Amino acid sequence: MVIQTREDNTLADMAEATVTSALNSARNRSYASWIYNWSLKGPMPDRVLHTPELASTQRGDKADAFLSGRYILPGGQVRMTSGTPWDAQPPSREWSQELHSFTWLWHFGARPSADTSRHARWLIKTWLDKHKKCEGTPWTPNILGRRLISWYANWPLIVEGADMVWRSSLLLSMARQATHLRRAVKNTPPGRARFDAALALAMTGLCMPDQSKSLDKGLELLIKDLAIEVTGDGGHISRSPEKQLHVLADLLMLQEAMRARGQHMPSALTHVIDRMGPALDFFRHGDGRLALFNGGGLGDEAALAQACTHTRDLPRGTPRPAPLAALPFSGYQRLTAKKTTLIVDTGAPPVGAFSTDAHAGCLSFEMSSGRHRLITNCGAMVVQGPIWHQAMRATAAHSTLGLSQASSADFVTGAWTRNLLGPRISGGPSNVECTRHEKDLGIWLDTSHDGYLEDFGLIHERRLFLAADGMDVRGEDQLIAQEGRRAREGAESATIRFHLHPEVRASLARDGSNVLLVLPNRQGWQFRAKGGEISMEESIFITDGETVRRTSQIVVTAHPADNTTRVNWAFRCLEADKS
To answer: N or C: which end of the chain has fewer CB within 10 A?
Structure first.
């Protein structure tokens, strides 16, 4: 039997990506030709039939930034005192893609005025003047698709006070873009890119006249791809709670648009929505926001409100169902007793293109008591560039065990490889085991992963226990040499990190024996550990991909000896549950 590793897959993916890149270059050259651009001409639509409402919070601070020439987007920041953003030197490919997608236009609605509408039209007009020709990033199907959806959603803002000439020129461009999208969508790589392109194609069929073929083709692609991307338990293949929210919110937007246009949502997509809702609820803490795993943030409040409304669409008087206890296909466990909740990552990292934002946080956990978070992961940074992005993916940014400053997963390195494949995971845990036990006393999890086996010859085992009264959380972390093998040199120290939420006040005892933790509601918890030295260090908590809050972390340091290292630790509530 031949066992294929992640490294083998990476080499195969590189070969495939090289061929795909060459084909795309040839296609792009043909798309830029005057013959192809001439072929995009067709009848001009006279109106937009439907204006979808995006499930996203409109933020006045983001609108103010754009209106003043500060372009803060995923992948970097640019400030311009004159000219248009289309003339700027992009700090990253991600920044350029986000800029040309126009998704930021939604925030302009938080500053409704004639001046805001004029500024929006100016930005679109300068874009149309510069990018009439079908070439480059602006005409990539997924970027083009997100732009069309944004223009449909912001149509009233865009055309307010505009004359017929402006409206006609914009509709003509939208028709040309839709034609190219319909032709090029089949060449879009699977994953989020093809989902965005397919969704936009379906929305075009609902928002523009005489586009029934676009609707049919978009729905067909969505059904095909989501059959792969949504797991049997309703989780998303990326293993990111926030990406799960984005996909579900987009599908709910599509469902509402179809309802408004008198169309019936295909049953295959309805079933996907019905599975994804409970899986999303699984990741919500007592404060209603999402757990921070695999590149995901807390989640947009408006999108969560929409998703939760759908999930809770129950007959009057019916109690809300409890969240699922496990997502076995997605690789997560949820332990709940009274008002205490633990959400645990018990899965291997996603593979291939779905791992470009995934983190090395295997066996990390988050913990909340009532509406207050106690233990978290650090989150994900999206606007400060690749250095921050990569740092937040490291094991040290998660509440789990790290070994000698190494992460439990490896990431693609090298400019050429990253350009071809993106910053995906190239190696890491391939065998992650989890066994759950539920008894009257409480819930146990026995977990392990082999992410340190290749470099250090060690298996990480973690055991978690939550008492039935919710007032006692215990853990045991072990590093064990695989049977028949000895631990390799280089494993100088093991650090078990517990990142605290910024609103938790922590005090380390003078003798270093314990840490007192106080939540905002004045509920107290005590942390103790045996088998390692307790210390406190600085940490950060990232809420929305860009806002950094200072906080602290408990660090238990142990030094591997012989073939086994064991650290026991516990959180004990010092008083009854508070809301």
So the answer is: N
Its pTM surpasses 0.85: yes
Angle between helices 212-229 and 192-207 (to 10 degrees): 150
Q: Which of 292, 311, 326 marks a domain boundary?
A: 326
Structural domains of the chain, count: 2
Instruction: Tell me the two tokens of residue 151.
Output: 């223009």
Asked if the structure places residue 361 within a domain, the reply is yes
The DSSP code for 138 is G
- Is 273 domain-assigned? yes
Residue that finishes a domain, picked among 295, 326, 357: 326
Residue with tokens 């008087």: 317
Q: Which has the higher per-residue pLDDT, 378 or 22?
A: 378
Low-confidence winner among 63-72, 234-243, 487-496 (lowest mean pLDDT): 487-496
- pLDDT higher than threshold 50 for residue 3: no
Distances (CA, A) of 475 to 326, 451, 532: 19, 19, 13
Query: Is 531 within the bounds of a domain?
Result: yes
Least confident of 123-137, 173-187, 473-487, 493-507: 473-487
If asked whether residues 345 and 287 sit together in one domain, one would say no
Rounded distance, CA 33 to CA 171, Å? 22
Tokens 């990506």, residue located? 17
pLDDT average, residue stretch 428-457: 94
Residues 391 and 313 placed together within one structural domain of the fold: no
Between CA 205 and CA 179 the distance in angstroms is 11
Q: Which structural domain range is residue 303 located in?
A: 230-326
How far is residue 108's CA from residue 116's CA, in Å, rounded to a whole number? 7
Question: Which of the residue ranges 81-85, 187-191, 355-359, 531-535 would you say has the lowest mean pLDDT?
Answer: 187-191
Q: Are residues 384 and 264 in the same domain?
A: no
CA distance 72 to 230: 31
- Taking residues 299-315, what's their average pLDDT? 75
Angle between helices 141-153 and 164-184 (to 10 degrees): 140
Burial zone of 505 (CB within 10 Å; 0-12 exposed, 13-18 middle, 19+ buried): middle
Please tell me whether residue 366 adopts helix, strand or coil conformation. strand
Query: Smallest Cα–Cα separation from 73: which of 455, 370, 436, 385?
Result: 385
Same domain? For 436 and 546 the reply is yes
The two three-digit tokens of residue 575, written as one number: 């008083």
Q: Which residue has the higher pLDDT, 569 or 419?
A: 569
With a cut of 70, say whether residue 164 has pLDDT above it.
yes
Q: Are 469 and 575 in contact (CB under 8 A)?
A: no
Could you tell me the two tokens for 408?
């439990």
Tell me the one-letter amino acid at 181.
L
Mean pLDDT of 417-426: 76
Q: Which two tokens stand for residue 355?
A: 């791992």
Question: What DSSP element (H or E) covers 157?
Answer: helix 155-159
Amino acid making up residue 130? K
Q: Is residue 418 part of a domain?
A: yes
Q: What share of residues in the chain are helix, strand, coil (percent, to 5)?
A: 40, 25, 35
